[in-house]
Amino acid sequence: MGYFFEDEYSLEDILRSSRMTINVTDFLNPAANKKIRDLLQNLLGRMGRFFNIERGALSFLDAQNEKMHISHMLKNGHINTGVTLVIKNKSSIMYQTLDHGFPVADNFPEHISSSTIEKKILTSDATRSVLMIPLITDSVRIGVLSLSSRDECAFGTYLEGVGKGFVDDFADRLYQMFTAGKIAV
User: Fold this and answer.
1) Which of the residues 74, 105, 154, 164 could staple to 149 if both were Cys, CB 3.0 to 4.6 A apart?
2) Separation of alpha carbons 150 and 137, rounded Å
3) Distances (CA, A) of 170 to 33, 63, 72, 96, 166
4) What is the spatial distance between Cα 24 and Cα 109, in angstroms, rounded to a whole number?
5) Do 3 and 156 contact (CB within 8 A), yes or no?
6) Secondary structure of the chain in HEC code, one letter for each residue
7) Which residues of the chain carry a pLDDT beneath 50?
């Protein structure tokens, strides 16, 4: 069962989850993917101090077409880029997480209501915990960072604030790169 922890977030957090979006999928190209990969590698290194991360994915919202574009995938400590997977279904757990605007931690990943693609990317037979984090900054919905772990209850401390500053900084940097046009080549 997944949990939305709305009551643990401030009014500022709630306001940040508004419906404004930026179409970052327009910027996904090889040069952008490398810059995003570097930012993601830095974030995962910082998060790895607190969480045993097995797999992960970074997805961006295509609001116009109600799709999520998975551009970066983590497996065995390596970030894969170059292929973008598109999830067209609004029932996607990534889409739902971004739509609700709050992180979701699930300690029963075999029961998460996600697409087949999402399950294959995020889970293995050994996966015991999943965390979905909406990337929202300046009231703009960017995408979702999804992580999984072989440890039971691995991400409960994220919901208490551990690592949240790292993710907020990551989202801010992505937003700044997109809005400044520094990522488009």
Assistant:
1) 154
2) 29
3) 14, 20, 14, 21, 6
4) 28
5) no
6) CEEECHHHCCHHHHHHCCCEECCHHHHCCHHHHHHHHHHHHHHHHHHCCCCCCCEEEEEEEEHHHCEEEEEEEEECCEEECCCCEEECCCCCHHHHHHHHCCCEEECCHHHCCCCHHHHHHHCCCCCCEEEEEEEEECCEEEEEEEEEECCCCCCHHHHCCCCHHHHHHHHHHHHHHHHHCCCCC
7) 1-20, 183-185
Closest CA to 13 of 24, 3, 4: 4
Nearest to 56 by CA among 141, 177, 155: 155
Q: Note whether 132 and 101 are within 8 A (CB).
A: no
The pLDDT, as a whole number, for residue 23 is 56
Amino acid at 127: T
Q: Is the model's pTM score more than 0.85?
A: no
pLDDT score recorded for residue 32: 80
**Rounded distance between C-alpha atoms, residue 116 and residue 91, angstroms:** 11
